[in-house]
């Protein structure tokens, strides 16, 4: 009823109510033809997609872009869930492809860190004893209770708890020691257990058999039975400690090197469920540990735990090291992607400059160091094959910070490891010469900047509601099993009226985010004297 | 045709319900196979003979979880004691607040008075950049952190049955954790390295103080949300000639009121740091007041007086456990007073206190007494939240940072 009314309303408006005089200068001397366009199906689809990307690019604020990413799905995307600490056997090829990362195993930190080596060596000598004391204190000198749960084995909980407190101490000691000498540490914000989430699309993944079978039924799919569809991917993680600064770090390698064919990442076209990553319906979220509008927007350093290694099926030390590399690539890419989203880029609009972060994975004794350069975030559809840019991840093996703890003393502290860590801290963020937010508005960059009160409040509420991923009031639509048997597989109830979505050829999951009635305004609350406006205004981005 | 048949065809629920009923009434049809087989000379056996045996009962499977299950709380529990112990947990508050805390800990109070050294240090103005960072910390704790958990239900006393929409946001626990840790980080980063190297910062450590008062056993379970320790005990020069608030008479209330009586307890006191550690001396203990976690045992809301009482019992609990580790379990009058600083906050108001622990003999109201110097109810800011979509911080008060800094550096 409601839809029909709107329809009638618009028809009235759109139908021409007057006659128009023909233009005088309709003719030009040379004929002006419209551009010749490829009218194949692929080209038309591609043009339609491009127009969507262009619309998202033109949106002013970060939050609107995030809502726009979720516009096509009322019930959320069916996302491949990449949790930080679930790493199945042999996941490396998939993670490399999905994060488009070229992994370079190194013994020492990359060349960009060469000039801080000497200074870091001296500082490591100065802080050595304090770090030793802290390690002894945290492992031996305290009586602590572990928070037990049925979700994690006790050895994982213990290792992560001790690692978390050692990391806090190490960060505290190094920051305090360098605080006076290194000004960027003084203003850096330190987050404990922040929320890191990232969302992007991956193209070039094979379709499941069910989709293949379904396509076979339709003639128009004849020539493109195995055409790929994008997979939405969602990363969820939470480091122990993350440091953020106002300025981005310097690139590890020049940005032009991103297109170097040596860094090409092999394509992984098998379905993610074959590796052990499964999917869930949810809205895509990009959260680097703070809401848009915070001052310190660029990641500097993050510390992650490795307790999950203890709970993995053991396929040998090499597999465990690969798992750590996977964790590092996932978490570094995830954090940087979320940061880049706050700069106005999305999975559809590529970065115009590289972003860098430093990642440490540790259990207190074993430390692995990773430096990650994000060059590109676009890998949807054909871009999986065509995008020449790749991301770079440098990573070390797990290195022992100390050998053992005997009689309340740390034995064999490895200064080289400490030096690498301090080099991470000495890496100074720098002002960039280019525009950091080319795709955000000049005036309004976040929702809080919007002048219109109603629009600002509505967008703020909607954005927070969307990213909270709280369950809907009504259950999502479902085809019941009995319907599948008695209605779909066997046509036994032909006398019934066809009312269910699958009987009307409707896919309820194709519903768009704004396909709902806006909140109703009760008559008493409508503006005086008489207002015909029954429903509140919504401000969904027009994409 | 019966109506049921139509209904069963049309209604899936009825159909399944009736299915068993209908099928259960079926009479097996004699197919004539038995006679046929007999005629052929093939023996026919009754199927029921083979199922006559009762299935074996299986024993209960002992499910081994991720960790050892706690023992049942009965009289065979190793920690069971006949004598009840009056226990104060960090989630409980005293009924009479600060007055009851005074009686329990035998403490006199110097109100609005902190040791002179702290007052001196608090007056040193911090640079502007530091205050900018403090503001960032407040905004981060109240606005920019991304936690989205269920906040307490909103109730309107006028319409108690009305269900408001449940709001997701930063819980008070997380807000306090972020704010206090950020403040401490800031102070440490801006302090001299020599000072920070003599200190150590611990998060969420538990102490347990057991003591007798008037032949009854008391135990305080305390959680220091942040415990700053140092390599030597903190000392304060204190004034004796100031008007103290003497220990009040609680009559008709007894000082044990609203303390829960426990029968499962460990009689010893516990200080979380081992004696072998050099930086074991407690310096400042930070206590969070999380509104959703701390409550009266009755449903009345927690009063400001009760919040202040919490500071005193907390400081006393930590200091006692430390003193007992230092001088032994049976020590009464301490050879040297133990000082400890305490900061309690609910994320907005700060309550500062310094406890001078002179005695652990808390019987009666006479003899040596402990002293509590305090400065309460300092507001760091008026409000910090999203105000119609815009992050707001109203009326920042720079004075509070001065006191926190002074507490760290004293």
TrEMBL record, chain A:
InterPro entries: Ribosomal_mL37/mL65, Ribosomal_mL65. Transmembrane segments: none annotated. It comes from the Eukaryota. It is found in: Mitochondrion. Keywords: Mitochondrion, Ribonucleoprotein, Ribosomal protein. It holds the Pfam family PDCD9. The keyword DNA repair does not apply. This is 28S ribosomal protein S30, mitochondrial. The lineage of its organism: Eukaryota, Metazoa, Ecdysozoa, Arthropoda, Hexapoda.
UniProtKB/TrEMBL annotation, chain B:
PANTHER family: LARGE RIBOSOMAL SUBUNIT PROTEIN ML37, MITOCHONDRIAL RIBOSOMAL PROTEIN L37. This is 39S ribosomal protein L37, mitochondrial. The lineage of its organism: Eukaryota, Metazoa, Ecdysozoa, Arthropoda, Hexapoda. It comes from Chilo suppressalis. It comes from the Eukaryota.
């Amino acid at each position: 009823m409601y839809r029909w009314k709107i329809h009638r309303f618009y028809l009235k408006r759109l139908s021409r109510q007057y006659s128009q005089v023909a233009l005088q200068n309709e003719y030009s001397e040379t004929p002006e033809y419209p551009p010749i366009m490829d009218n194949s199906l692929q080209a038309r689809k591609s043009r339609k997609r491009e127009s969507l990307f262009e619309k998202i690019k033109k949106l002013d604020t970060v939050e609107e872009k995030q809502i726009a990413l979720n516009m096509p799905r009322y019930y959320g995307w069916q996302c491949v869930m990449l949790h930080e600490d679930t790493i199945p056997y042999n996941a490396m090829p998939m993670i490399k492809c999905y994060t488009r990362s070229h992994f370079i195993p190194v013994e020492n930190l990359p060349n960009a860190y060469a000039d801080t080596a000497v200074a870091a060596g001296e500082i490591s000598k100065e802080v050595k004893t304090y770090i030793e004391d802290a390690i002894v204190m945290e492992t031996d000198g305290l009586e602590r209770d572990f928070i037990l749960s049925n979700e994690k084995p006790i050895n994982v909980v213990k290792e992560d708890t001790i690692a978390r407190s050692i990391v806090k101490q190490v960060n505290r000691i190094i920051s305090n020691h360098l605080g006076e000498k290194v000004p960027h540490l003084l203003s850096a914000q330190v987050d404990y257990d922040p929320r890191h989430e990232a969302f992007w699309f991956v193209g070039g993944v094979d379709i499941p058999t069910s989709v293949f079978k379904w396509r076979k039924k339709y003639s128009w799919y004849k020539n493109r039975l195995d055409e790929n569809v994008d997979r939405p991917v969602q990363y969820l993680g939470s480091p122990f400690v993350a440091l953020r600064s106002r300025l981005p770090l310097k690139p590890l390698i020049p940005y032009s090197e991103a297109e170097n064919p040596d860094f090409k990442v092999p394509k992984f076209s098998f379905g993610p469920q074959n590796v052990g990553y499964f999917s869930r319906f949810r809205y895509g979220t990009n959260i680097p540990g703070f809401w848009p509008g915070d001052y310190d927007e660029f990641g500097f350093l993050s510390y992650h735990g490795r307790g999950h290694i203890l709970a993995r099926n053991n396929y040998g030390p090499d597999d465990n090291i690969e798992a750590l590399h996977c964790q590092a690539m996932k978490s570094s890419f995830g954090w940087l992607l979320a940061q880049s989203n706050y700069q106005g880029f999305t999975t559809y609009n590529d970065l115009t400059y590289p972003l860098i972060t430093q990642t440490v994975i540790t259990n207190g004794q074993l430390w692995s160091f990773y430096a990650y350069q994000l060059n590109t975030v676009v890998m949807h559809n054909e871009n999986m094959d065509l995008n020449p840019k790749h991301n770079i991840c440098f990573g070390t093996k797990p290195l022992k910070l100390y050998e053992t703890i005997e009689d309340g003393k740390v034995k064999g502290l490895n200064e080289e490891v400490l030096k690498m860590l301090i080099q991470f801290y000495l890496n100074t963020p720098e002002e960039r010469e280019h525009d950091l937010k080319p795709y955000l508005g000049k005036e309004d960059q976040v929702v809080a900047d919007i002048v219109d009160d109603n629009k600002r409040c509505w967008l703020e509420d909607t954005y927070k509601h969307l990213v909270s991923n709280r369950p809907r009031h009504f259950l999502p639509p479902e085809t019941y099993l009995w319907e599948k048997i008695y209605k779909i597989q066997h046509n036994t109830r032909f006398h019934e009226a066809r009312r269910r979505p699958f009987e009307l050829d409707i896919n309820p999951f194709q519903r768009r985010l704004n396909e709902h009635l806006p909140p109703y305004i009760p008559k008493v609350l409508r503006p005086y004297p008489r207002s015909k406006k029954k429903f509140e205004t919504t401000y969904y981005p027009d994409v | 045709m019966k109506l049921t048949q139509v209904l069963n065809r049309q209604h899936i629920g009825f159909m399944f319900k009736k299915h068993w009923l209908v099928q259960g009434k079926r009479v097996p049809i004699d197919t004539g196979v038995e006679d046929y087989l007999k005629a052929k000379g093939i023996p026919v056996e009754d199927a029921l003979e083979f199922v006559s045996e009762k299935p074996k009962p299986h024993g209960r499977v002992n499910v081994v979880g991720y960790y050892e299950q706690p023992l049942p709380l009965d009289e065979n529990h190793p920690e069971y004691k006949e004598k009840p112990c009056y226990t104060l947990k960090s989630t409980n508050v005293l009924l009479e607040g600060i007055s009851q805390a005074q009686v329990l800990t035998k403490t006199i109070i110097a109100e609005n008075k902190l040791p002179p050294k702290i007052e001196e240090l608090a007056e040193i103005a911090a640079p502007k950049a530091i205050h900018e960072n403090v503001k960032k910390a407040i905004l981060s704790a109240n606005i920019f952190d991304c936690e989205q958990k269920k906040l307490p239900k909103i109730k309107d006393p006028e319409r108690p049955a009305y269900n408001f929409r449940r709001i997701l946001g930063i819980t008070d626990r997380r807000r306090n954790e972020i704010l206090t840790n950020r403040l401490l980080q800031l102070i440490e980063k801006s302090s001299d390295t020599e000072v920070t190297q003599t200190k150590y910062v611990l998060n969420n450590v538990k102490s347990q103080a057991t003591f007798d008062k008037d032949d009854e056993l008391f135990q305080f379970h305390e959680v220091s949300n942040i415990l700053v320790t140092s390599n030597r005990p903190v000392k304060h020069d204190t004034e004796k000639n100031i008007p103290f608030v003497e220990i009040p008479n609680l009559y008709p209330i007894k000082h044990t009121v609203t303390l829960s009586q426990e029968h499962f307890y460990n009689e010893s006191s516990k200080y979380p740091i081992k004696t072998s550690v050099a930086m074991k001396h407690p310096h400042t203990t930070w206590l969070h007041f999380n509104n959703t976690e701390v409550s009266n045992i009755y449903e009345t809301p927690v009063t400001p007086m009760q919040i202040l009482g919490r500071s005193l019992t907390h400081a006393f609990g930590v200091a006692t456990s430390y003193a007992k580790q230092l001088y032994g379990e049976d020590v009464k009058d301490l050879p040297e007073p133990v000082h400890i600083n305490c900061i309690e906050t609910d994320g907005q108001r700060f309550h500062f206190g310094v406890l001078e622990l002179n005695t652990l003999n808390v019987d009666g109201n006479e003899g040596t007494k402990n002293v509590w110097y305090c400065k309460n109810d300092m507001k760091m800011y008026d409000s910090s939240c999203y105000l119609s979509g815009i992050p707001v911080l109203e009326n920042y008060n720079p004075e509070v940072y001065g006191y926190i800094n002074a507490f760290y550096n004293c």
